């Protein structure tokens, strides 16, 4: 598949249709083979492919980093639940929540940018796309 023709909206729509009960990819696979992309188009293609393939791993990574931020200031958990994330981002005493979320998203962006996609990731993506097309075809 040519990932350069996929828009962010297409990716978000596809992620909404995805079954999130898939288990995370192995840690040894998740933290192997990093290289810098050679062009902007290669970077966007790699980013989209990795975000789709490692979606469960990235979700766990963001939750883990948020948890680490909450360990630093445990009261932030109660405050975040009481006021919601939107107020937490505006309140100076809850700046820890904002930083933890930003670091988690930055870690996801960096990993998806530099992780070289493997054949298994590409084949899995094709399989998911085929299932989505087949589902839409069978509904007609």
Automatic annotation (TrEMBL):
Keywords from UniProt, A to Z, are: Membrane, Transmembrane, Transmembrane helix, Transport
Q: Where is it mostly found?
A: membrane
Looking up InterPro entries in the UniProt record yields:
Prenylated_rab_accept_PRA1
> Which Pfam family, any one, appears in the UniProt record?
PRA1
- Tell me yes or no: is Membrane among this UniProt entry's keywords: yes
Superkingdom, taxonomy of origin: Eukaryota
Listed transmembrane segments: 52-71, 77-110
Provide the protein's localization.
Answer: Membrane
Query: Transport: present as a keyword of the record?
Result: yes
In what way does this protein cross or attach to the membrane? Answer: Multi-pass membrane protein
GO biological process terms held by the UniProt record? vesicle-mediated transport
A single cellular component GO annotation? endoplasmic reticulum
Protein family (similarity comment) = Belongs to the PRA1 family.
What is the documented function of this protein? May be involved in both secretory and endocytic intracellular trafficking in the endosomal/prevacuolar compartments.
**Could you tell me what this protein is called?**
PRA1 family protein
